[in-house]
Predict the structure of ABHEA protein.
Amino acid sequence: IPGYGDSPPVEMVVTAQGWRTFLDHVLQELGMQRPVLVSPSMSGRFALPFLLAHGDQLAGFVPIAPVGTKDYTAEQYREVQTPTLILYGDRDTRLAPQALQNLQHLPEHRVAVLSGAGHACYLDKPEDFHQALLDFLRQLK
């Protein structure tokens, strides 16, 4: 994520519009058409504004306890028609419940909870994570 860890700061990435624009540019540069956007934790700052503005450009959305879900209203989420797999570990007792509470307003969602996994559920339970992700991808059009 630009501006975090050892990555250089990116001036345009300081607002929701900037985050959305940045992700839009990345997807355009990669030539991606109707990708499935997987969004763990901090990447929610980029993914959620993009989903709300351009969800119709995505084949699917997989939020994994992303940050920033409380920044949007239930009504905003209800307008998104992107198929969504809300995925989290049951030991993530801080961010996951908040994300679920907000993201459950997405009309085309389903939920997968990984038993015994924490915030980085894909690291704690990689086989279960990949199975849930593959099952979701298989049902997409």
About this structure: The radius of gyration is 14 Å. The domain at 34-138 is CATH 3.40.50.1820 (Rossmann fold). The first strand starts at residue 36 and ends at 40. Residues 41 and 66 are 4 Å apart (CA to CA).
